[in-house]
Amino acid sequence: MIAETVCSAVAAAGLGIAAVTAYRKRFLSAVRIAAYSLVPLGLVMTGVVEWLADTAFSPTAWAGFVVLGASWLLFAGTRAVERRRGGTRKERKAAAKGAAQREAVAPAASAPSLGPGTRPSAKPAGRPRSETATDDFSDIEAILKKHGI
In whole angstroms, what separates CA 102 from the centre of its chain? Predict the structure, then answer.
């Protein structure tokens, strides 16, 4: 009952302010203020305010909001764990099965050998130690030119 009275008083005050604004020849603002002030009155007339007041003071409604929040936290928590593990159990099984099939393609294959004369040395044979910053980017430029970028 109090909520309806407050909303009606707000609507009446808003309409009064709209009338004063219209008197000052600011009609667009007056119409906008009138529109905003009619919203609480419409909510009272449709019964939304009574429903909200009953919900706000109902312990059962607040318990329902707590249950909904707990449900949301459980959904979010399971999704976070799922992302950390790498998907659902079905997706992980499918990925493991695909990896096993890829390994079975050539199980006896070994890594290619470098041969006797191509042993890598400890020092790079290319450039001397006194290189400048522009020399560092020459390798990158060569790779980009090779790919046409």
Answer: 35
